[in-house]
Amino acid sequence: MKHVAYYIYFFLIALPVLLVGTILAATITIIGCMLGGGRFFGFWPGAIWWRLWCIISLVRVRVYGRENISKGQSYVFVANHQGAYDIFSIYGYLGHQFRWMMKKSLEKIPFVGYSCKVAGNIFVDNSSPRAVKATMEKAEKQLAGGMSVVVFPEGARTLDGRMHTFRRGAYTLAVEFGLPVVPITVDGAYDVLPRTRLLPRPGHITLTIHEPIEAPASGRHELAELMTKSAEAIASALPAANKPR
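The chain above was modelled as a monomer; its predicted structure follows.
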């Protein structure tokens, strides 16, 4: 019965607000960035809107470990990918300037894809060595001045709620530029909106920001070690049902 009441609320109130709010946030982002305020408008309209969306859709987000990150420092944030609310909760509640590393195909989403592009998010193009080089060059520019990036190394939302194997591509920036890697554990987003369901449910999401994995004195990470350490940190804050097999 409670789900029926929620879905009545969702369709009559929350969904119209979602459509209007998303268009408004994207419009503000596009105009602000085109007027030269890319650093502010490329992040904050979306961050404010997706935090509000979590509240409107009756999803409570708790954050632990913010003391582990410093304002003005560039990081590569890596997180497990339980569902769509991973994006909303990290965007709305991380509280640290960043840009997303996104699949190139997402650039084609009408209007929203364009707003992501002008905001400076990094669309990953692996179609050719030249495209990969261009992606890395754009990432290097974006990471200047304390900007960070957020990546989901699994590459796609989990189908069974468990954390799956991380892909190495997510760590190339950290290795190339000697940046600290900060693992983030997302817990609860799978119950709110898994990949196999179209509509969310009220719930609780916990973000755990772990201590940064700093580059060694040489300035370069060991890729395999970096992947293992970050995966272990993320898994450590997951319940048994969501840990990797």
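The chain has one domain: 60-242.
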